[in-house]
Amino acid sequence: MLRIGMLTSGGDCQALNAAMRGVVKGICSKRDDVEIYGFQEGYKGLIYSNFKMLTSRDFSGILTVGGTILGTSRQPFKLMRVPDENGLDKVEAMKHTYHKLNLDCLVVLGGNGTHKTANMLREEGLHVITLPKTIDNDLWGTDMTFGFQSAVDIATDTIDKIHTTATSHSRVFIVEVMGHKVGWVTLHAGIAGGADIIMLPEIPYDINVVVDAINKRKAAGKKFTIIAVAEGAISKEDAKLSKKELKAKKEKQKYPSVAYEVAEKIQKKTDQEVRITVPGHTQRGGSPCPYDRVLSTRLGAAAAEAILDGDYGYMLGVKKNDIVRVPLSEVAGKLKYVDPKSSIIKEAEMTGISFGIK
Amino acid sequence: MLRIGMLTSGGDCQALNAAMRGVVKGICSKRDDVEIYGFQEGYKGLIYSNFKMLTSRDFSGILTVGGTILGTSRQPFKLMRVPDENGLDKVEAMKHTYHKLNLDCLVVLGGNGTHKTANMLREEGLHVITLPKTIDNDLWGTDMTFGFQSAVDIATDTIDKIHTTATSHSRVFIVEVMGHKVGWVTLHAGIAGGADIIMLPEIPYDINVVVDAINKRKAAGKKFTIIAVAEGAISKEDAKLSKKELKAKKEKQKYPSVAYEVAEKIQKKTDQEVRITVPGHTQRGGSPCPYDRVLSTRLGAAAAEAILDGDYGYMLGVKKNDIVRVPLSEVAGKLKYVDPKSSIIKEAEMTGISFGIK
Amino acid sequence: MLRIGMLTSGGDCQALNAAMRGVVKGICSKRDDVEIYGFQEGYKGLIYSNFKMLTSRDFSGILTVGGTILGTSRQPFKLMRVPDENGLDKVEAMKHTYHKLNLDCLVVLGGNGTHKTANMLREEGLHVITLPKTIDNDLWGTDMTFGFQSAVDIATDTIDKIHTTATSHSRVFIVEVMGHKVGWVTLHAGIAGGADIIMLPEIPYDINVVVDAINKRKAAGKKFTIIAVAEGAISKEDAKLSKKELKAKKEKQKYPSVAYEVAEKIQKKTDQEVRITVPGHTQRGGSPCPYDRVLSTRLGAAAAEAILDGDYGYMLGVKKNDIVRVPLSEVAGKLKYVDPKSSIIKEAEMTGISFGIK
Amino acid sequence: MLRIGMLTSGGDCQALNAAMRGVVKGICSKRDDVEIYGFQEGYKGLIYSNFKMLTSRDFSGILTVGGTILGTSRQPFKLMRVPDENGLDKVEAMKHTYHKLNLDCLVVLGGNGTHKTANMLREEGLHVITLPKTIDNDLWGTDMTFGFQSAVDIATDTIDKIHTTATSHSRVFIVEVMGHKVGWVTLHAGIAGGADIIMLPEIPYDINVVVDAINKRKAAGKKFTIIAVAEGAISKEDAKLSKKELKAKKEKQKYPSVAYEVAEKIQKKTDQEVRITVPGHTQRGGSPCPYDRVLSTRLGAAAAEAILDGDYGYMLGVKKNDIVRVPLSEVAGKLKYVDPKSSIIKEAEMTGISFGIK
Predict the structure, then answer these.
(1) CA-to-CA distance for C29 and D302, rounded, in angstroms?
(2) Where is it located (chains A, B, C, D) (predicted)?
(3) Contacts of residue D309, Cβ cutoff 8 Å, sequence gap at least 6
């Protein structure tokens, strides 16, 4: 008998179901004696032994379905070793559930934080296999995460729609794209949507350069400017503050989000009307795009193969067009940022995009 | 020689280009001796005699293109008879342009405010034909305006995407849909997207009823609640205030928009996380949906026919499946609201939707 | 106790699930004591007493899901009174199932053929309520059927995509749109997609006029021509044949479908390359468009209301913007054709569309 | 002065305009003294000196527009050295045009055949830079071509729509996907759409295995089977024939396309109804997907950089996430096939997909 636990953790994204379907179909293609324990709402389900027994039937027909049939929750790794209100040590609780159910392997789908915890569980002796799930594409060790391309598609569609209305009026439009720490979604959606200005967490902006770019467009007879701004975009002044100073400043300013902050700055320095669009959680929603379905299905099947091989302790990732096993110890705790000096930035600038810097 | 002036006024929407294409193709199918004057940016172009000479070629290939090739601007009808900074009487200026160019007819595409002005120009003796353009579907005299269905499609797509992410987390999601005075887009998108609660300007809400609906869903094991709220949704307390009192209150509260106000109220009265999505101007953007393309093409062709008949002073509208000529004098100044007692509201309630009232 | 039978019959279409959800949610909003019998695969399920007991939970989350959770089959009404291979009289079998289960009402979702049978069952004394389901929009007694607008959207999307590739090459493109007897989908998709020529079952075409229209475009410097042809489009010569003669001719010609026939005729008479696209059953597939979701939800809720009123023997239809009860006796056996003299045809012609006639 | 010629050759695809925009914006970001010669309809324009002078304005707003503003035609490389009806040597004609216009570089966008000719022109001493355009993704030297992902998206959407209608009926559905020699689009769309059987040119099928797979599904209670078949799919018997024998056989059989052939074989060996969908040229149409827009923009900008560097004789390609210059001499004449032994095939099989082989 092969006993597999499975959980999805962190912010949800597209293709979680597709990936799990790949894992289960892959295992069941070779083995009949499989039990699948679906832990509910991320690590919480593992901690509190909250699970459902699932069969391969439960994974049929979910290739195209957004969300996760297991539910998810922001993962509580920070508090891991701090007992909860009932005195429960969460790491021990997870180990207890794992051993009590006599699991052969725990399959974890998640992003950066999730991988730290997954690696800790591996260090504690559990068999763990992980899949790189995040719209942010910021996981180390894989060329691409699933969810990313779907999010780019949605953010780009938002910019496309804004484009037609922008051409009718003389305005500055700001589209706020998801990404607190990394700007991959904003960068790709900005290029794909033909944004005029892109503001990323990795490239602190100079508001005067942004304003210059707007004015230059106006002077050239272009009536509108479209700005794609990442949630975590930051001015070069703010980038110099300490974390504590920045937090205090933000709390004082009370902007609902970064788009409102940028809008106010632009309105103070130009005579243009500014409009804001916040597609928000739609970027995590809807059916996964075909790219993500293929990627997640392949990763899932490759995870099944690793499990059937009894080869644990890896994240499955994609390198070029191949699926590879990346040691969890190498993945955990590393983020993949947009490099301001990379060729994609340079290529974007050559097509006229301003990143708000000189 | 037939000389036609054309302008698009007010907020832009989908199918403006499609409608103009219909007018021009329709006229040119019968007459070779046509001159088309495209006034830029709405009534402004007529006032300041800012126009381009266009040919039927300019209207080829724009059936599917969003926005308006003429540009538009919020229309300045309130100030019509008040001279501008240069002492210009705007109504006289428009008449002057019309007569100077020796126009046979002015074709105006716009919403409610635009129609008031168009009717005034008619009263001043100009030949005017109008087309009912607005995402709000609030024009009197037509079953449907173009732009509406496209906006519903986009707002519904937003709710659809939120649905998949909502099922993964335990949250309340608020989607803010366009509509300051009327709730047609919110109502249709809310039903189409399967929203649990719909809040309309025409049905002032009781926050306690809203909160009850949320709690009832939670008690029934449904993890999430989706709320479609119109920009102009209003609480029953605020609905009792005078316009002045309300304005003062709003300015004090400083909510970026109604979704933030509703979110705060819900967070105070429940233990649920709330997330906000504001699709904003995307609802006016993108290619018109097929429904709007057919409607606008038909309206445009019928406008051409009226012009060829020399039958002026009408808005073209749709009644059942026929295009009809509706006297401008009957249209101007009337809004078509959602009737809280209408059958669509009752049908929506039967499928479990709460409108925030008992 | 209220016992409701339900079935979907005929070719499937979008919003069948949405409509059934409306019925069930509507009934369950007023009554707790409800039993729902879902007959499998259309009238077959009623004949052979093949059903599943369903609860309101089964109808949750299916608003946006295409297809039908009950399955469907081409309905066997022609053979109704002819015993099957086991000597079974099908009408008696249906009545037997109905009475055996002690049903209060049978809810039938279907098109033209389905309605004939439903009316027969009504005449046999059963309580029947029907909903107008068909992509063809050819049911008498309602302004609109659900499924139609979704099919138009898909066929239009096909034409849109062909448009971009058409502009790159010098070719004639034929898009074959569903509709054997009526041309509503082809007409609307053709207008919405900007087709140059539209060929409908109701307007027998003259191939020489079609060829003239193609040559005229070429002479005017337009490189491509797009033709939207309904499956049932017919030449004026063939329209004069008897049913039997036509059948014999078609069998001899062995064209896979009408597009291939039209293509061959055009290739014989012009020097242009011709390309064929057959979107086929995709036109019945995918998530219902928002328009159909609203329409089907309203119709479903109104059906629930009729059932709760104990008012049977009706199809629910839409007139203007209201849902109405239309006596089944008036609906059965009537088709709603495109009228060649209607205003929409005239309006389409004014925008330059040729219907292949002089 | 920098004089750039540009042409698009072969079957059109998405993102041709986006790529050209990237080239022109990239060059104009560094140089003011640029002349752009847009050759019409592929190499024909170069042969017959048929071009338009273009400015950067012509490339504004075309990022999202399908097709090619230059037009294209199947490229005549086979006849290159054979004089045409007027005794014209085409290679000399192209060289003549190039030198007459005093071009600094010729930018060529195309697929496999196009690259052979481009390399020949390079060998003749012209400065050539190429961009890898094809929905087939079969070009050697780049991980990915633009057009491919857009085509996969459209083919997948077709399969998705068929899925919902398939679940309502008991049928076999065949979706014919573009790809005569290589099966990349079919493979990816098949996996993404959840096809049950995938038939590729690279993996000759055994019809008995295909039929077994269908019957096995039926026996397992699954009502339908979806088959994604590439245009160039071939049976193992036919794969053994010589080119000449195969051609003779095909001409005798007169199937409109491969889907009809496969359908007939299945209908002979099973009792299931079969339905065919041929999305055809839609797979080349519509707006490029965001993935292709980013890829083509980057490739275009990188081509600009190569030109500004005066570094000619390359195709721009993507390796991992970087844009690289690949010598044309290495690219020309090589096709990138699906390897039947590659990991993606194995992963697909693990998720239950049959490739029609044992």
Answers:
(1) 62
(2) Cytoplasm
(3) none
| Pair of tokens at residue B186 | 């919110």
The number of beta carbons lying within 10 Å of the beta carbon of residue C98 is 24
Phi-psi region at D352: left, alpha or beta (left = phi > 0; alpha = psi -120 to 50): left
Closest CA relative to residue A187, chosen from A168, A171, A170, A203: A203
Q: What burial letters (b/e) apply to D202-238, b meaning 16+ CB within 10 Å?
A: bbbbbbebbbebbeebbeeeeebbbbbbbbbbbbeee
Within 8 A by CB and 6+ apart from D321, the residues are: A143, A344
Q: Helices C290-309 and B184-193 meet at what angle, rounded to 10?
A: 80
* Rounded Cα gap, residues A344 and B310, in angstroms: 59
Burial of C49 (0-12, 13-18, 19+ CB in 10 A): middle
What does D241-290 look like in DSSP terms, one character per residue?
Answer: S-HHHHHHHHHHH--SSHHHHHHHHHHHHSS-EEEEEB-GGGGG-SSPPH
CB < 8 Å to C152, chain B:
290-291
- Over the stretch C148-167, which tens digit does the pLDDT of each residue have? 999 999 999 999 999 988 88
**CA torsion, points B304, B309, B310, B314, in degrees to nearest 10?**
-60
Amino acid at A36: I
CB contact under 8 Å between A169 and B72, yes or no, is yes
Residue type at position D74: R
What percent of chain D shows pLDDT beyond 70? 98
B113 annotated as a binding-site residue: yes
pTM reported for the whole predicted model = 0.96
Under DSSP, is residue A250 helix (H, G, I), strand (E, B) or coil? helix
Tokens encoding A138: 């910021």
d(CA C11, CA C181): 14
User: Which chain D residues are within 8 Å of A26, Cβ to Cβ?
Assistant: 347, 350-351
The catalytic residue among D12, D84, D89, D136 is D136
State pLDDT tens for residues A152-211: 999 999 999 999 888 887 799 999 999 999 999 999 999 999 999 999 999 999 999 999
* Cβ neighbours of residue A100 closer than 8 Å, sequence gap 6 or more: A49
* Alpha helix (H) residue ranges in chain B: 16-28, 43-47, 90-100, 112-123, 148-168, 184-193, 207-219, 236-239, 243-253, 258-269, 290-309, 328-331, 343-350
* Cβ separation C277–D279 shorter than 8 A: yes
What is the average pLDDT score of chain B? 94
CA angle D4, D8, D10 (to 5 degrees): 150
Cβ pair B348:C301 closer than 8 A:
yes
Phi, psi of A105 (to 5 degrees): -160, 150
Contacts of B188 in chain C (CB under 8 A): 290, 294
> If residue C164 lies in a helix (H) or strand (E), which one and from where to where?
helix C148-168
* C27-C28-C29-C31 Cα dihedral, nearest 10 degrees: 90
Q: How many CB pairs under 8 A join B and C?
A: 135
Rounded CA separation B7/B5 (Å): 7
**Count of all residues that appear for chain A in the document:** 358
Q: Identify the burial level of D261 via C-beta atoms within 10 angstroms of its C-beta, where 0-12 means exposed, 13-18 middle and 19 or more buried.
A: buried
Its ipTM equals 0.95
Rg (CA), chain D: 22
E strand intervals along A202-250 = 225-230
Residue B237 near chain A (CB below 8 Å): no
Asked about D292 being catalytic, the answer comes back as: no
Q: Which of A160, A162, A280 sits opposite B277 (nearest CB)?
A: A280
**Tokens 């508090």 correspond to what residue?**
A79
Instruction: Delineate the domains of chain C, giving CATH numbers in brackets.
Output: 2-147+285-331 (3.40.50.450), 153-284+339-350 (3.40.50.460)
- % pLDDT > 90, chain A: 89
The DSSP result for D56-122, as a single string, is GGGGTT-TT--S-TT------GGGTTS--TT---HHHHHHHHHHHTT-SEEEEEE-HHHHHHHHHHH
